[in-house]
From TrEMBL, chains A, B:
Protein name, per record: TetR family transcriptional regulator
SUPFAM superfamilies: Homeodomain-like, Tetracyclin repressor-like, C-terminal domain
A Gene Ontology molecular function term of the record: DNA binding
Residues in the DNA-binding region annotation: 38-57
Single GO biological process annotation from the record: regulation of DNA-templated transcription
InterPro entries in UniProt: Homeodomain-like_sf (IPR009057), HTH-type_TetR-like_transc_reg (IPR050109), HTH_TetR (IPR001647), NicS_C (IPR041474), Tet_transcr_reg_TetR-rel_C_sf (IPR036271)
Amino acid sequence: MSDQPPKNSRLRDAVRTQAEILDVATREFAERGYAGARVDEIAALTRTTKRMIYYYFGGKEQLYIKVLERAYTGIREAEQAVDVTGLDPAEAIRHLAQLTFDHHTEHADFIRLVSIENIHRAEHLAKSETLAKAGTPVIDLISGILARGREQGVFRDDTDAVDVHMMISSFAVFPVANQHTFGTLFGRDPLDPARRAHYRRMLGDMVVAYLRTGS
Amino acid sequence: MSDQPPKNSRLRDAVRTQAEILDVATREFAERGYAGARVDEIAALTRTTKRMIYYYFGGKEQLYIKVLERAYTGIREAEQAVDVTGLDPAEAIRHLAQLTFDHHTEHADFIRLVSIENIHRAEHLAKSETLAKAGTPVIDLISGILARGREQGVFRDDTDAVDVHMMISSFAVFPVANQHTFGTLFGRDPLDPARRAHYRRMLGDMVVAYLRTGS
DNA sequence: CGGCTAATGTACGAACTGGTTCGTTAGTAG
DNA sequence: CTACTAACGAACCAGTTCGTACATTAGCCG
């Protein structure tokens, strides 16, 4: 039981300070949008000062881009971890769709950042070198599933992987992205646990039913 | 060919001034978000001055709420104009879905405002008396179609009108709401005319295929 | 045609906000 | 132990932004 100082006992720790700024900034940008986010507010919620944001990131915009990059990295990693070996095509696409649904409904901040970025016509996304060249593993995965489905004659063949990904994403994103307007107008919280489970099944059924329909 | 002064020759016209402010404000808010929109900019794009925005609307937030109300009124009216008499249930739901798709892809400003409003957790929507109590005609329409479909034994019965509306909306909203991030990441503009027609058909097929699947 | 009021324009100010300047200190290499 | 540098903090600044006070006038009503 020695009293060794824990790693973060260092008063000055570049890595930790940067990580803390990114964490707080992610919340702030997701919460208030790019224009609505306040650099001073981010600094205040950190153990450090505004000075360090400019020291490490250069400015509000560069910080926002880093936040975006980190958020997208999260979903890329989740996608790469998906394994559908041993599943028949219908089971495979359902599995992938429902994992996508789970990921989105569990990462509202990410969805909010994407919405915000679309309001800005993806101008920051375009500026990011990391994200521009990063591949999209999920497309390859879907391509493989679709190919198998067609070989076996169980899937239609007039829709490609990107289209199917869009179909899945649409239904996985909507309850999160439009939770509040939808909830207000229809008096029904789309993320209520029971409803969420129902939508999860709906999504799987929907994608499989669509793909099985003759073209 | 008399030289009668046209109606808008009046230098002072309350109705016209208010309408012009609302038009410009809609564009500005949809373009830059609530926090990003500038009252001075809205005024500058109008034939009148900032003074009048405060005179007629009271402030930035009330103006934004009016903009929201007008945008929602547009889609309400479109929904009320939908007529599916004479169509069998599958045809009817496909028709409605594709009209929804058309409306959304043609009204990007509305979709952007909805995204923005969700970032703000629908707090302005909640403040609007007009919108809070306004009904949602489309739900009744869908209810009727679903009921007929079930009577005829062609539709599953574990999904209600609001759920089906959400399914339709998801796929109709996504290409517009996420046009830029999706386009950037997958190198494919989801609103490209050819693609748009393909997605329109996909949506119809998808909803019908889903509803026909046994529960 | 006189006067009353809705409608309008100008100029300004207080608070906010992104970014910077200047100086300080913790940690470590030698 | 010393000296050097990466890491840091406080105060400040210039430009912006929502909102308002004050002055003015178009258009209508009797």
